[in-house]
Design goal:
single chain, alpha/beta, Aspartate Aminotransferase, domain 1, Aspartate Aminotransferase, domain 2, 2 domains, seven-stranded mixed β-sheet, 15 helices, 42% helix, globular
């Protein structure tokens, strides 16, 4: 009997396929935000769900010119494989912003890749990872396959409660703390300066590494700019980046364009060296052409673009806040962001925003329910709203529809 004559004994159904997956793959889940975005593809649905930059603000002419300049300057090298670390002029510019050498900067293909690779090189099964409550869903999704033990840190309107953090660190052997200090995703809150300083001091004292996720930091439309956790830690370390316990992650997605997928991590050399090795196994390097294009836009286009985006988002945030006051039911509470792309709404107890999403979509408006942002569950009566990718007319119509949905649910 030949191999082709042998009867088949395997039924390749869904259960069997699942049994062939690794244990790590079996615990992976789809992003709740990405699933919701599928609902909003219909052109008549107003979406406050995904944190999408406003496409009408993209610097198209500058992008076209940057492409031409790069092709003329670099020729075939712009289309060739490159170093894993990233385009040196881009890394040098990033390093100058913090007064660190370029070797402490690693270019990433989007900040989401940075989170995934940081999880890969830092988290072992069972490691205690401290996260805000609520926290960025994408970070939870990136870290989860490495099987951390999440411990939530209480938060309020000034961000992480550092008194509670100190109490926690006295009894909990934490390895890593993840935070979004500026205009936090999902709440839009900003960690106060006093708390930033104390968080850095506490984590340094207890030997805890910090991942500071800062994709929105340049998008401040009210108030004064605050130093990053990384800047505070670098000053405490006397300017030596290899003595800094904070790992800083940021991106050009929110300031220039997300489609280029250019971001970076700056950290102590032992971390950078492992990130280089991890990235070599992931994608070798971030696209050469994209990095070169961004390097051409840094000195002129980027600062102008940041001002354009800040003005637009500030106006849209104010309009959305006003609409909450007009249309949302009594008892609804919300954050007041000083920048970024999001605000957070807490409805009266008993309202389930996940269950109400389908009702909202029937009214042609979408949001992100709050519960997926809690590492340990909860938040059923909360939701995240993004104002960045909506026109004034859409904000007015959409917020009125949401108000009707929530008011109806409360009877």
């Amino acid at each position: 009997m030949t191999i082709t004559d042998m009867p088949s004994t395997t039924t390749w159904n869904a259960a069997y396929w699942n049994s062939r997956l690794s244990s790590r793959a079996q615990i992976m889940t789809a992003s709740a935000i990405r699933e919701i975005l599928k609902i909003t593809q219909e052109p008549d649905v107003i979406s406050f769900a995904g944190g999408l930059p406003a496409p009408e603000l993209f610097p198209l002419d500058a992008m076209k010119q940057a492409f031409t300049t790069v092709m003329e300057k670099y020729g075939p090298a712009a289309l060739q494989y490159s170093t894993t670390e990233g385009h040196l002029p881009l890394r040098e510019w990033i390093g100058r912003q913090s007064n660190i050498p370029p070797q402490n900067v690693q270019i990433m293909t989007g900040s989401q890749q940075g989170l995934d690779l940081l999880g890969k090189v830092l988290i072992s099964e069972g490691d205690v990872v401290l996260v805000e409550s609520p926290t960025y869903l994408g970070a939870l999704q990136s870290f989860q396959p490495y099987l951390p033990h999440y411990v939530e840190m209480p938060t309020d309107e000034q961000g992480i409660d550092v008194d509670a953090l100190e109490t926690l660190l006295k009894t909990t052997p934490a390895k890593l703390l993840y935070a979004v200090p500026n205009f936090q995703n999902p709440t839009g809150r900003t960690l106060s300066l006093e708390r930033r300083k104390r968080l850095v001091e506490l984590t340094d004292r207890y030997g805890v590494m910090v991942i500071e996720d800062d994709p929105y930091g340049k998008l401040r439309f009210t108030g004064s700019e605050l130093p990053s956790l990384y800047q505070i830690a670098l000053e405490r370390a006397g300017g030596d980046p290899d003595q800094v316990n904070v790992i800083y992650s940021s991106s050009f997605s929110k300031t220039l364009a997300p489609g280029l997928r250019d971001a970076w991590v700056q950290a102590a050399m032992p971390i950078i060296q492992k990130l280089i090795q991890a990235k070599q196994g992931a994608d070798l390097h971030t696209p050469t052409l994209n990095q070169m294009m961004i390097a051409e836009l840094l000195d002129d286009t980027l600062p102008r673009q940041i001002e354009i985006v800040k003005k637009a988002y500030g106006e849209r945030a104010q309009q959305m806040l006003a609409q909450i006051g007009q249309h949302f039911p009594e008892g609804a509470q919300h954050t007041v962001p000083q920048g970024g792309m999001f605000l957070w709404v807490t409805l009266p107890e008993g309202v389930n925003t996940t269950a109400l999403l389908s009702k909202a979509v029937e009214r042609k408006v979408a949001y992100v329910p709050g519960s997926p942002f809690y590492a340990l569950g909860g938040g059923e009566n909360t939701l995240r709203l993004s104002y960045s990718n909506a026109t004034p007319e859409q904000i007015e119509r959409g917020m009125r529809a949401l108000g009707e949905t929530f008011t109806e649910a409360l009877g």
